[in-house]
Amino acid sequence: MNDKESKPKEKDIQERAFSFACRIIKLYQFLAEQGSVGGVLGKQLLRSGTSIGANLEEAEAGQSKADFVSKCNIALKEARETHYWLRLFEKTKVVSVERLRELTKESNELVAILTAIVKNARTSE
Question: Domains along the chain?
Answer without folding.
Answer: 3-123 (1.20.1440.60)
